[in-house]
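Note on ligand handling. Small-molecule inputs were canonicalized before submission; formal charges were left as drawn, and no protonation-state enumeration was performed. Where a ligand contained multiple stereocentres, the stereochemistry in the source SMILES was retained. For pyridoxal-5'-phosphate, this procedure yielded the string shown in the input block below.
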Amino acid sequence: MHRCWIEVSRGQIARNYQSVRQATGPDIEVMPVVKADAYRHGMREVAKVLAASGARWMGVSNVGEGISLRQGGIEARLLVMADFLPSERDYLFEFNLTPALHSLEDIASYHTLAKKRDIIAPYHLKIDTGMGRLGTRATAQEILLALSATPNAQLEGLMTHFASAGNYISTQTEEQVARFLEISTYLATSGVRPKYTHLSSTIGIAYNRRDAWGNLVRPGHAIYGYVSPARGEAPERILQVQPALCWKTRVLTVKDLPKGAQIGYGGMFRAPKPMKIAVLAAGYADGIPHGLGNKGKVMLHGQFCNILGAVSMDLTTIDVTHLENVEAGEVVTLIGRDGPVSIDAQQMARMAGEISYSLLCGISARVERIYVD
Ligand SMILES: *Cc1c(COP(=O)(O)O)cnc(C)c1O
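Structure output:
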């Protein structure tokens, strides 16, 4: 009897991965992104499903995640995308992790480490085409010079990342693609043709930005069943995916409150009439956004129930005045479907003023994970 848990569908993860493959076609490598504990779906389990479905590459954020996957028996190529600390460099070699490098100095030191081991070590070079975060802003000529001085470091991939891929009002993505093409074309003219070029995550795939696929795509959100809505006039979506996770808790207790009673910290809610409330066995320590206080809804008996008052650390209070016979122990759905009603992570995030990414990543470690087919 768990107090709060998620159910992750292995089959849905696999189907979402296959949907991306179908949308992009046989010539494009698909590198599912399993960083951040697979957006809380459980990195090792998700990676196993993806490996069994044929994924040859997976994206992680950091060295620790890569090591965890290796220790979990994952043999796919792993791209470490969010940089690494100087003290972590040796692990890249020890665990066969492929780094994204973000500066010409990075390439030089990676070359030195590879040379010491007497190997030629592959890496992907990230170009900052306008995201203004990680990635080199060096010119193509400067990159070419750096490459010729670092023979033990092998440029296997050239990549970039978009800041506004879903925004069809802004031209930022077109500018980023143009900048990327300028560099990759210059390198190609000079005989440098990395095996992979990649630019797109979920949004660039879903809205069919083919000119921004290169020959590899990096879907994260889509693998878990989500595509963020686009802004402006987006092309038709070519990718259909379904959420792979539902999130549940239980009723701890039910009670009647008289008119005028206040509920929770700060007395944020005052009963306008006699009400029946249920106290749920989950709160913000489980990842229910504090911002859902007096705003959110959950599902019970196939109906929506409003959250009343503040969400507290371990408890959340809901209105069950309209329901008959609610009992302690009953299952309440936070994300998922209950008969005719449903709430997904995007809808819950919107109610809380968050994004679906942060909501999923916020499902906390104490929430049990159950895998279903
Ligand atoms: C997280 C990440 C992705 C995946 O993004 P989604 O929007 O979840 O598909 C792709 N590439 C990089 C570099 C990332 O950091």
